[in-house]
């Protein structure tokens, strides 16, 4: 019993640590990207280039950490990094979703304020339900659908309030919806693709970002960003490259903590955690930029948060119900099923 208690405590600690690291890194990266994408100090119109550079930094840091682990194994534990073209091709479907996710995220962030970024990206849970049904064949209860309806209502109320305030960006809304779709797909495909790389988050991060580095090149070419970067007045500024380097480091960390949170929890919990994180991020942004928001604007945020929280509660109740049904087994099979359950739990670790 003591071993089981210790194992349970370790699992709880792992979940808390994963969620906390995800929140800190994600909020920091959002504010930093907002500065790089739309700061009047920089005036660089190249969101794909900023994202491509972050992916490149992630690839280089993966190889660097693998090299450090080889020569200093007592101080750093990191899997050796070798590129297998076969694995790269198998990860490619996830990489397309990954590129869409971070590209639309940055395009949305470029066109809307950080305070509205939460509502603009609030449809992730709704898309997760849709994608889980289409891809995984998972059914959703009526209560869960009602919670999704709340989220959709909050989203449109937030859009309406942005329009009333005269700060609505149609392109930003479209990018936010597409980003929500890609976030939901990314969570599902990450879970399914981890086994391809031996359940190694770092290896998945490496292959994902290597593929992304190549996938972003035609996007930069056709969008004209290569010319924008070439004629950027601050291209030789040490300050600019310092900020880009910091963003690249956070991009590297995000690739890990996102996969860590999905692996420690589930795609659904990852999406709910992202929604809750965005709510805290909204309050921080309103306070930092000293923005005035009407009550209906705050109501839209609250409705989205309540809908997301209600959806989580409905899913938890459904999981408990299924667990209770599965536990009602004939006495002669109880010992065998307990052993099977313990074996599956070890495999999941």
TrEMBL record:
Provide the topology term for how it sits in the membrane. Answer: Multi-pass membrane protein
Residues spanning the membrane: 12-37, 49-69, 90-109, 115-136, 143-159, 165-189, 210-233, 239-259
What's the main place this protein lives?
A: membrane
Single GO cellular component annotation?
membrane
Give the top-rank taxon of the lineage listed in the UniProt record for this protein: Eukaryota
Q: Does the keyword Membrane apply?
A: yes
Region ranges (Disordered)? 316-349
Question: Domain Sugar phosphate transporter: where?
Answer: 17-284
Q: Which UniProt keywords apply?
A: Membrane, Transmembrane, Transmembrane helix
Extract the Pfam families matched here: TPT (PF03151)
* Compartments where found: Membrane
Q: What is this protein called?
A: Sugar phosphate transporter domain-containing protein
Question: Lineage in the entry?
Answer: Eukaryota, Metazoa, Ecdysozoa, Nematoda, Chromadorea
